[in-house]
Write a structure and sequence with these properties.
By secondary structure, this protein is an alpha+beta fold. The chain is built from four helices and four strands. Helix 3 packs parallel to helix 4.
Length: 107
């Protein structure tokens, strides 16, 4: 009886690979921009379905605003969400990621 159970639980190499892919943990990409040209990389990350924390502390204020506007527009285009985290630090998420506010604002 035990022998039959073992045979049923063995996975082929392809099944094991599929199982590992299904078990991957979600990732949040943290990206620090040093130039406006890197903004397209940020948008590609979102289009791949990954949440993105964008650190704009290395850009001057005007370029940081342009970068936020650009990524926010791309986020809107894919029905995603954005969240301000701190000065020059933003979270952008694609449509299939829900952002939940854990801060109680009634305090």
């Amino acid at each position: 009886m035990r022998q039959k159970f073992r045979q049923k639980t063995r996975l082929t190499a392809d099944e094991a690979k599929d199982y590992r892919l299904e078990q991957q943990l979600p990732q949040i990409v943290v990206m620090e921009l040093w130039s406006f040209e890197q903004v397209t990389q940020a948008v590609q990350i979102l289009w791949q379905g990954q949440p993105l924390v964008l650190n704009l502390t290395q850009l001057d204020v005007e370029l940081a605003q342009r970068a936020v506007d650009f990524v926010a527009g791309a986020t809107c285009a894919i029905d995603g969400q954005q969240q301000y985290l701190a000065p020059r630090l933003f979270l952008f998420a694609p449509q299939d990621v829900e952002l939940a506010n854990a801060v109680d604002e009634t305090v």
